[in-house]
Amino acid sequence: xxxxxxxxxxxxxxxxxxxxxxxxxxxxxxxxxxxxxxxxxxxxxxxxxxxxxxxxxxxxxxxxxxxxxxxxxxxxxxxxxxxxxxxxxxxxxxxxxxxxxxxxxxxxxxxxxxxxxxxxxxxxxxxxxxxxxxxxxxxxxxxxxxxxxxxxxxxxxxxxxxxxxxxxxxxxxxxxxxxxxxxxxxxxxxxxxxxxxxxxxxxxxxxxxxxxxxxxxxxxxxxxxxxxxxxxxxxxxxxxxxxxxxxxxxxxxxxxxxxxxxxxxxxxxxxxxxxxxxxxxxxxxxxxxxxxxx
Length: 294
Known about the structure:
By secondary structure, the protein is of the alpha+beta class.
């Protein structure tokens, strides 16, 4: 795990170590109208070079704004389930849980303070997110070179799309800096050798009236510099990182009081390819097997 003290927060065009952030972001950004416009070869080159990419235009900001309003209007802390103990069937429907602590049930100690709201595309579209999830999942499939609708509306080859919203509450929501090493293990064991994670930007960082939080936020590390992408990104941008990318979420608005009664803070959407498990604890089998190799 990366030592956060080795990185320096930046959103300047040129970082303190001389890295030209603006040029890197320009090289890593694509402007597209739909997932069908993606060139797998071009995107692979960007990811191989920078370990991240940004796609603009596929998801419209207005769709994200409308979904956010609905999420906030329907939010209730009474729907929170514990961080652990859910069944595979639970998360394949509309399901909400609050994770505070190390979440070591996955076999990896990864401190966090976040809420996860599962909303698969076969479940009720209660948050108005399905249009957004579908576009993001089709983008993911284009990256992998799969059929655009693969494992989106149904389970295919034992895989499904874990469409979900992550909520990092104001007052200290966070996810420690890390490289993904749980889902990639499962995918690799099932024959998927590459790993990419698309994230839909749903929140804006800053002090303007249209911003959702002021400090902290989603980041990835670029050549020794920590870049907070929500300070520059637009709602609906798809940020893609590879299995080599160090990323996380820095403390959200520590100057505010943590209040679980509201949904203030940072939101982001994910469409990760999950294995359909048949029983509780099956994920641990994959992680334990991987650890035994070393």
